[in-house]
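Lab notebook page, bench 4
Experiment: in silico fold of construct C2
Operator: M.H.
Input chain length: 138 residues
Purpose: comparison with the prior construct
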Amino acid sequence: MGGLVYYSSRSGNTTRFMQALGLPAQRIPFDTAEPLPEPAAPYVLICPTYADGQGRGAVAKQVIRFLNDPARRALIRGVIAGGNRNFGTTYALAGRVIATKCQVPWLYSFELAGTETDIARIRAGLDTFWRETCPTAA
């Protein structure tokens, strides 16, 4: 299976999701003084959404900083986004934004820290994704 890179804010929802997922992953740090991960192989990015009512600010600044590096951006193969359904059309908006900007598929969205169903679907989906899309990364 390919790699995972994720970002989680102080709320910790994405961290809890990643712990439940139980797969190895590199974390984009919340603290801007900490170094960013340098993936050496293709990865799927997992991140929450932080949008205002108009959708501004959907992608966390640290994620933008991470993806602004051409070497890191070249290795992204897909995105999974978290969000809160209470925010309607901006739910998981970070996934749509990143998928469009990086020209990769938006693979899945989950609410807050996800559910057991989300975890099972994402594990199975990632396994299929890496086997079918990037066979050398499987």
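Observations: The longest strand covers residues 76-83. The beta strands are 3-7, 26-28, 43-47, 76-83, 106-111.
Next step: discuss at group meeting.
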